Amino acid sequence: MSFAKRLTDTRKQKGLSQDDLATLIGTKGPAIGRYERGATKPTIEVASKLADALGVSLDYLVGKVDTALDADTLSRVRAISGLSDDDRSFVLRAMDGLIRDLKTQRAYAVTS
Hints:
Radius of gyration: 18 Å
Mean pLDDT: 90
CATH topology of the largest domain: 434 Repressor (Amino-terminal Domain)
Helix content: over 70%
Oligomer: single chain
Number of strands: 0
Number of helices: 7
């Protein structure tokens, strides 16, 4: 998916108009329209402001990853990556177990 499409979709999901988003990053609505149409591409600084204003990672907005992580999730990922290798491994194993259990619970809830 293109930057323009991700920008448009994310802005709409957040319930923001082009003018609202422009105000949040310190520009005018027509600039957002040009970005959304793909007529122009923002500088890295502006793209970063857009990602921050929309509460997604810059990687998501530019298409490097397909999952839009909210600020809370990003904060947790950063905290985990700052741990020692042993601690990070422990946290990830615990998360794997919780995810597995949740999937199992959902599978049994559907069949009951």
